Amino acid sequence: MKQVLIAFGVAAILASCSKEDKKKEDEKENHCPEIAASAVPQTVKDSFSLRYPSMTVNTWFQKDSIGFCAYFIQPVNQKKLAEFSTTGNFLSEEIDIDHDGNFEDSTGHSNPKVPEVCECEIPE
Question: Is the pTM of this model over 0.70?
Answer without folding.
Answer: no
